[in-house]
Amino acid sequence: MRLMTDEKDKQEYREFLEKHKRCNFAQSLEWAQVKSNWINEVVLAEDPSGKIIGSISVLIRKLPIFGYIMYSSRGPVCDIHSMAIMKQLTDGIKELAKKYKAFVYRVEPDIESSDVEFRKVVTNLGYKIKDDAKNFREEIQPRYVFRLDIKDKTEDEIFSGFHSKTRYNIRLATKKGVTIKEGTREDLKDFHKIMIETGARDGFITRPLSYFEKMYDALGSEHMKLLMAYHEDKPISGVIPIFYGNKTWYLYGASSNQHRNLMPNYLLQWEMIKMALARKDDVYDFRGVSGVVDENHPQYGLYRFKKGFGATFTEFIGEIYLPFKPLTYSIYKFSEKAFRTLRGMKAKLKNK
Prior knowledge:
Elements: E1 2-3, H1 7-19, H2 29-34, E2 39-46, E3 52-63, E4 67-73, E5 77-78, H3 83-100, E6 104-108, H4 116-124, E7 128-129, E8 144-149, H5 155-160, H6 164-175, E9 179-182, H7 188-202, H8 209-223, E10 227-231, E11 234-244, E12 247-255, H9 264-278, E13 283-288, H10 300-307, E14 312-315, E15 320-323, H11 326-350
Parallel strand pairs: 4-6, 12-13
Antiparallel strand pairs: 1-2, 2-3, 3-4, 3-5, 6-15, 7-15, 8-13, 8-14, 9-10, 10-11, 11-12
């Protein structure tokens, strides 16, 4: 095990990450730049020759009162069933915890909940597993997503797998004159205006324009695009896909209250999927949905929309964690839940 220390390590890490089947953009150095208000450390597991065989990118931040918290999004990247590799990574995490005097390490892996062998590995290494989250606000990353297997598939094969209503809506958008254009950094302003409109309509807190500009600068055209839908030269909808390794993720979407009947969001999804196919990706990830599959649930419409593209409903294992100071962590969890509840209430009141 070693910690990433120099440019040689960084280059080797980038190459390892992009070539690994478990690659995830949230483990990248570029994403760590987006989250630059956190300290970034990377733990590398290695074979006897020093070659990287596993990795975990860790974000570290000092919180008022509580001290340092450590967090990893969608790692580790390795053979997740290898006790030896997972122990190397865990030893590195514990070393970082001592360095920063952290009170907890939390990670939300890109690993399905049904993976019993992984559960055994992390339990034996001392991790705790949080198994009870259902909604978006209960965890940082969505526990429930839709994923579309596009490996070695053609556009016709993928399109034919869509629900008939989804295919109809894609064709309708084109017939009604909706056009898709790749946006520039300047076009993020239009995207953000529509995002604010979306947040007010759907009751969620939106990020500032500066955050999206920071993403654009850090990830570059290789890893991030902005696609905007227009009708009669007016922007009516937009999406941000992220490309990394063998996957494409639908990260952000925004739609105007006007012209929703033109179905621009369906056409935008199809354009992103075609881009993923052109890259010869293995997976197109629609990202989060609620774990409550009920037609009366306020987020059921999002579930139905993503399901229409023939994707598979996927449940991740959720958060696993190492509490280094259990009492401090218990108090922190209580305060975190109270904060999220209060923030949600404020958003609802603001949007009424």
